[in-house]
Amino acid sequence: MSKHLLCETLVTARLLRPDQMAAVLDRCAFSEAYPQTVIAELGIATENQTTIILASALKLLHVDLTMMPRDTEALSLLDANYCRRQAVLPVALRDDGRTLWLAMADPTNQETIATAKDRTGKRIHPTVAEPRLLLRTIDTAYGLAQPPKPTPAPVSLDGEVFTAADLLRVQHLQASMQKTGDVLGALVTMLDEKGIVTANELHAQRKKPRVPSR
Fold first, then answer.
1. 68 burial level (CB within 10 Å; 0-12, 13-18, 19+)
2. For the sheet containing 99-104, what is the strand order?
């Protein structure tokens, strides 16, 4: 329901047409993405543009998470799993710690605001952030982000240098050969079970020398 309200707000703000709203909601239902993300995927507007318009229409603050300093005391009030599940991030404490500024992908979700208030014991002041940026920031803030894997060094074999891309192609080829072997093994078993030809007969055929064609 809250995603429907987000889209209605964006229609009122004239970012979306009613027919586009239907397409966005259908895609949201299929992918569980937020309208801001779907609108960007459809090329209607960027997530940043949509979020700024949404914040203005709702009379809420748009927070730039790339510039917002981490508030460790605020972060400690909600756990990482809850934040990721609800797409929210505690960004700051205000009013001598009585009010929590909460960055949200969907600031119209009153149920999320209520549960955040219950969990933190604070008055919740919702703010608006871009959904994908918000999720990335949650992962970084709570240490969930995986460090990038180092690029393997080139391997030298008999004077030939093989890069990581070469080795990856070899791995794909090996996996493909394994699948082919599995398929052939299953075919031989089926032929043997049906009495069409036995595995020993096939093995004997493979051992026969090939006569070159003229």
1. middle
2. 88-94, 99-104, 123-128
pLDDT band at 150 (very low <50, low <70, confident <90, very high): low
- Output the average pLDDT for the chain: 85
Q: Two tokens at 150?
A: 């180092």
Measure the CA–CA gap between 34 and 187, rounded to whole angstroms. Answer: 47
Q: What is the pLDDT of residues 128-148, one digit of tens each?
A: 999 999 999 999 999 886 655
Q: Please, what's the b/e burial string for 164-196 (b: 16 or more CB within 10 A of its CB; e: otherwise)?
A: eeeeeeeeeeeeeeeeeeeeeeeeeeeeeeeee
- Model confidence, pTM: 0.66
What CA–CA distance (Å, rounded) separates 64 from 66? Answer: 5
Select from 73, 65, 72, 67 the least CA-distant residue to 97: 73
| pLDDT tens digits, 118-129 | 999 999 999 999
What pLDDT was estimated at residue 212? 59
Contact 102, 88 (CB under 8 A): yes
